[in-house]
Amino acid sequence: MAKDGSLFVRFRQFDAYAKTLDDFRVKTLTGASVTVISAIIIIFLVLSELIAYRTPTWVPELIVDKGRKEKMTINFNITFPKMPCHMLSLDIMDDSGEHITGYSHDVYKVRLDLMGVQIKSEKEQKLGDNTKAAEKALLAPDSCGSCYGAVSSREDKCCNTCEDVREAYVNMGWGLGDTDKIEQCLREGWRERIETQSNEGCNVHGHLSVNKVRGNFHIAPGQAFQQSSMHVHDLNNFIAGAPDGHSFDLSHNIHRLKFGPDTNDENEAIMAITNSLAGTNKVTDKSR
User: Could you tell me if 49 and 77 lie in one domain?
Assistant: First the structure.
C-alpha cells in the first residue's frame, strides 16, 4: 500500500493545473491524467500537421487554356497483334479544319511476327519498290505512267509507281481495288508483299503534334480519303481477310497514350493522370 501511495504522489507532480495559491495547490490524480492526455493529443496534432505540410498532394484541376495557335504533343505506343503494318493508317482531324490522312511524321511502324517478336522497324515505309530502282530500270526517261482515270497531284500528272496510283485514287475519293490490274503494282510486286506480310502484327509508336482544339486522331485499317465531306476508309482488303483465309481484327494493346510533353519523370501520380490508358488491352475476334 505504501508503494502504491508513493506512486500516486509522484504521478500527481504532473498536474499542470495546480491552484495558484500555495494553500490551494493540491495536485490530484485526475489533474495529472488530464495533463498527460492533453500532452499526447498536442504532440499528435503537431506531428500530423507537420507531416501533412511536408507531404505534397496532387489535385486535378480544369482550367481554360488561353494559348492561341499552339500545338500539343501526344505520345503513343500501341500494338495490333493481328493487323499487318501496311493496312494501318493514322489520321488526324480537328475543328480548325485540319485533316491529315496517312500521317507519317515521327510515326514508326514495327512489323511483328505471330509471337510478337520484332521483324523490322520502318518509319512509315510503304509497300512496293521504295528505292524506285525498278521504276528507273523499266521505264523510259520520258515515260509517263497512267493513273487509270484518276488525277495525280504530282507536277507531271504521271503515276509511275503503285504508290502514285494509290495517292491519285485517294485524291479522287476512290478505293484502289484490285492491284493485279494495275501495271505499276504488278511490276513492284505489291501483291506478293501483301501476301508475305498478311500473317504479321504491328506496333505503331511515335508522337503527334496537334492543334489545341477539339478533334481526334485514330488508327484504322485501309487507306483514308474524303468523299462527300465524309472521312472514309477503304475496308475492302480488311474485310476480305488474308490470302490464306484467316481474318484480320483490331485487337490492340495500349502501352502508352500520353497527352502533353514527354518527360523522364515516372512519378506514379503524374503517370496516372497523363497516361491513364497505359496497359489497356482490348481483344476481339470480329473483323467487321
Answer: no
